[in-house]
Amino acid sequence: MNQTKTAAIYARISLKDRDVPKTAQQVEQCRKMAETFGYDVTRVYEDDGISGYSADVERQGYEELLADIRAGHYQVVLAVEESRFTRQGVADKERLILACIQGGACWHTTREGFLDPSTDSGEFMAGLRALMDQQEIRKKTRRQKDRYAEERAKGRPLWGGRPFGYQGDRITIEPVEADAIRDCVRMILEEDASIYRCVRYLNDELGLKTPRGNNWGTNTVKELLTRPRNAGIYIVDGHELDVAAAWEPIVSRDTHEALLAHLGAKNNSTPGRKPRHVGNMLILCGVCGERMRSASDGRGIALYRCKSKAVDSHPNYTDNVRHSCIRAKFVEEVLREEIVNAFFVGHSLLSSSTAIGKDLSTLHKKISTLRVKRQSLVDAVADEDSPLTAADIAGAVKRLDASLKDAESTLQSLLAEKAHAQMLDEIRRSMGYLNLTTHRVDEDRAVDVRKALTERYDALTLDTKRVLIEDLLEVRIGAGRGRKKVLVRHKVVTTLNCDEDPA
User: Fold this and answer.
1) Structure confidence by residue, pLDDT tens digits, 398-415
2) 328/341 Cα distance (integer angstroms)
3) What's the CA gap between 199 and 407, in Å, rounded?
4) What is the pLDDT of residues 42-85, one digit of tens each?
5) By the 8 A CB rule, do 380 and 421 touch?
6) What is the residue-wise DSSP string for 58-74?
7) What distance in Å separates the CA atoms of residue 452 and residue 11, rounded to the nearest whole number?
8) pTM (two decimals)
């Protein structure tokens, strides 16, 4: 009577093995074979979702199996096919052969049958099948690459998880998510919003999750907004394919490139350590004229100190002269007030203070004029006493709409070119307090206007505030105490300067 052989079952499947039974099915098939041949199965080893081809991936179940085979725990190892053990070729198959020889075990698969690697014929067949498995892998790899190339030539996306903004087919737009992407891009380009602002918009205001159900972070939002797919650009291995993408773009290519340029400019705007205070290296020492750096007094209070006393290699470091020093909060309070004053009093001067400003002001005036004309035509038709009909004004409205679209498109292009011009433009557009007839400030709204401008300034990014200060103000720190030490000269709105030069 034959003695029952102790057996172990090994089941493995990688995520890409679509034609191979799942591990539970593999185990069931092996148990049926064990009943047929009278094997006593004492343990099952599984590696679910793990490739047998990659040498970089550790297969815990397989390594434990090899160790137990060497220890002589089993007389036979069961699997549905030999490729379940390994797909790494003859060298890795040799590990299984040696383990079986050392532990006195054989293997039996439902596909290839029984094999004893300790015999010459068994060792030869094991090596031959390993070579055949490698050849099959190469064939599958070539077929897969050919299929990928065919899909890419059609502009179709390859398989994978659902991209945010698109449905599961990776082609059809998901309207709510696509609108959220457009909103974030618009906020960055038109309002100089930060990536963190977009994070809060997606998480808190819209309550949208990533396709995996997680909250958004700064890195995931930046990857989302800068991915080429949003503009219908097909990228493979870092290079753009010359094909029309099968999916509908969420934003235009021009908008996508403007966003990349905007974010790149912000990332590269300040080499070295990024300033943490708005006046860092912008305000001047009233003693020597050197720029002042932000620092701390050791108790956590932010200061501005003359650079000549902050850098020991500076020629004035040991001149025994007391140079300017001031708390940062005093400087920043004054800077906020002076910027608000500049826009409150000198908005017309600021509109023409830079070349880009002139272009934007002209465009805004043109857009405003076109909108007024269009509305006048619509109102004329709505008037019961007017002889005009909708058909009468259809041609004129169409021409106005075309001109308006062209002007708005030009404006968006200019906004994308200069980050600081975007900010100046946004502030000018907030100047709704102007009397449309006199183009002067309504006195009864002055307090509200100053408050609105202050809030707008506070909402700007640090970099944008610094651009404003550098363009509009010259700031020195003189003698005195507290805020009185901050001496400001307006570069553009010169009517705000005192008659006597404080320097």
Assistant:
1) 888 888 888 877 765 554
2) 20
3) 31
4) 999 998 877 756 656 778 899 999 999 999 999 999 999 888 88
5) no
6) --HHHHHHHHHHHTT--
7) 68
8) 0.39
